[in-house]
Amino acid sequence: MFDRIKMGENIFELIEFALARHLKDGSTIVGRYGVNVAKVREVVRMPKINPLASGIPGVAGVFELRGVPIPAIHLSQMLGDKSAIIKPTDQIIVVEFSRRRAGFIVDRTEKIRRISWDHVLPVGAEKAANISGMTLLEDNEFLFIVDLERIVQFIESTVEGGGEIKQPIASSPYLNPPPTFANAGAKTSSDSEGQASKVGILLIDDSKFILDHVGPLLERAGFRVITARDGAEGKAILGEFADGNSKVGPIDVVVTDVEMPKMDGLTLTKWVKEHERLSVLPVIIHSSLSSKANIEAGLKLGINGYVVKNDVRKLSDLISEILGKDFKTGQFFNAS
């Protein structure tokens, strides 16, 4: 992906695929969906699927790919079509993210599209829980970007006792810290004295789950957290901070996702690292894109660390190490 696209230009590639959906009136419609190429390892024809000993909703079973067992997830069923069946002509999109591999069963793959993030529209969680965004195509039809991470999280939450498809979340190693850029201790009119003395983290993610769960965990670890819902909103907050007009207090480190509507995390990183005043501000990528290629792409743009999503302890430790401070992380991390 990154060999074909200039990094930091707010463009990504996705694989477009078709899914047939059965409606309550008996009719069938074919929808157009997509998944980021950076998550895709390969597309395979329908293999032999071995059912699980205990059924898991939406999981057809496990198949082998070059000796590696991979869960096969029936995507139509996960998107609400309980009557969908697996056909011999179906394909499986094999993906990898957050140190996990999974295969998603689709009707057929169509093409690879190059999309600008500023053309991706957010979708309200109440309207499409497993859709992360949508974009209008040239024929005035919408293509929906599937939130694969959320689907896997949902499946894992239904598996008791660490079932057959659950794997531990791992994080990448620490990556070269920059010169210290810390404003801890500065006081602003918008912060209480106690809050102003805490290190300020700008947490940028389009996932409500991340903002609502990771943000509070970082606060319990002793940090002050400011949130933004995409790269464009994060850029606006950073711009005000650079101009001395911050409404949220000092910012000491940026923690950003990669895949976001309007502006992605790599484009934001490039802007920060090229900014006259913000270039020394540490930027940590917090993403489900865990391949070596994705980490290298961030390093070329000057990131200061890369942590796989939801490893909050690793993220907290990395922030403290980058800023060269001995922060107390609290008993929360030691709770068993």
Q: Give, in spatial order, the strands making up the sheet with the most strands.
A: 8-1-2-10-9
Low-confidence stretches: 1-5, 160-193, 326-336
Total number of strands: 15
**Average pLDDT rating:** 80
Distance between the termini: 40 Å
Query: What form results from the Cα inertia axes?
Result: globular
CATH fold field value of the largest domain: OB fold (Dihydrolipoamide Acetyltransferase, E2P)
What is the overall number of helices? 8
Percent of sequence in beta strands = 25-35%
Query: Biggest β-sheet, characterized?
Result: 5 strands, mixed
Fourth-level CATH superfamily of the largest domain: CheA-289, Domain 4
Rg measurement, Å: 21 Å
| Whole-number count of domains | 2
Report the CATH C-level class of the largest domain: Mainly Beta
Helix content: 10-25%
* Secondary-structure element series: EEEEEHEEEEEHHEHEHEHEHEH
The assigned structural class equals alpha/beta
What is the CATH architecture descriptor of the largest domain?
Beta Barrel
